[in-house]
Write a structure and sequence with these properties.
This protein is of the alpha/beta class. It is built from 13 helices and twelve strands. The protein binds 5'-O-[(R)-(carboxyoxy)(hydroxy)phosphoryl]adenosine and zinc ion.
Length: 390
Amino acid sequence: MPDAVILGIESSCDETGAAVVRSGEQILSNVVASQIATHQPYGGVVPELASREHLRAIVPVVRQALAEAGYTYQSVDAIAVTQGPGLAGALLVGISFAKALAFALEKPLIAVNHLEGHVHAVLLEQRQAGEVDLQFPVLALVVSGGHTHLYLAQADKNLWTYENIGRTRDDAAGEAFDKVSKLLGLGYPGGPIIDRLAPHGDPHAVRFQIAQIKHRDRRHSADKTMAAEDDGRPHFDFSYSGIKTAVLRYVETQNLAPSIDERRQALAKIIRAGHQPSIDDYLRLMDQQTRDLVASFQRAMITDLVGKTLGAAREYDIATLFVSGGVAANHELRTTFQREAELEGLPVFFPSRKLSTDNAAMIAAAAFPKLWRGEFVPVDFSAEAGMALG
Ligand code: KG4
Ligand code: ZN
């Protein structure tokens, strides 16, 4: 495929991103404006505020991405933007801006599924590192705040196709991290906080059972964690609302509420004073029992994610494993996947931690094959908040 430079725009949740990427493999710039400070006082993403923050950030973020790459609006070859899934109001900010640019500049406009973007974050960095010999079939776990999906991915020249063989039946894995963090008075964003605190506790202290999705007719299934959908293909589904309830029950039976309230107030005070709490602040406010609870929760989540994913890899005779999305930034998740996949002789690839969480470089990378297939969208296309992949 000839060279092409794409300006990517991402605004599906709480990060405003713009990036300039050459030929789906070379990042010329990748700017992300985080909204953590905006949502932190509320303990989670407030959709109204997210849209407003995107509106404020979109123009400077795009300008900065172009400037850092040494490009102008006129000199990029195409504009790519996230169409969904995500928060409708947030998506519309990026989409409206991308449409206006494409219309005014007379450039092709490419709509990208955010989940496909997460898969291409891995590919982008693999190509950037010169590793082009990818073995198929690929199994991609996309694990983030809104999604826990397993995809079988195939590529035929420029056409990437995906088959969904697993998804969460209720909460996404990142959502469980976020809710448990909030529940324990540790605040938002939960995943990165729990990631940093978990090494300070005993992961075997509290036993959590994560729901296993049963096959409809268990007599015919060797593996009881496997569900079968109407397509007759085995599915590997996840369920994380139960573990959140189990943590809540533990908090109640162990009477942890007073210490949680105290911690919540102390952390809020630090944030109100305009600081980010340090790891020492968190640890000072946590007794050993709470540290152990956090470590045990994280270990249970990771054991389940890794176990089900490797179960799917065996069932579908997978050649390569990708793990991407915000939760893929988790240190223990990465080392566990690496260790367990190696035992099975399965190569596993992650994006760098920066490309694991939401960014626009992955959107520009996923758009590249579409550019060469001429897969453009008219300027009246719209956001698709519940957009599926595959
Ligand atoms: O991919 P992402 O940035 O946005 C979505 O598409 O959802 O993922 C954000 C999610 C949040 O739930 C956040 O808590 C989680 O990823 N996350 C992590 C870590 N960093 C972000 N979870 C566990 N460990 C981390 N280091
Ligand atoms: Zn994402």
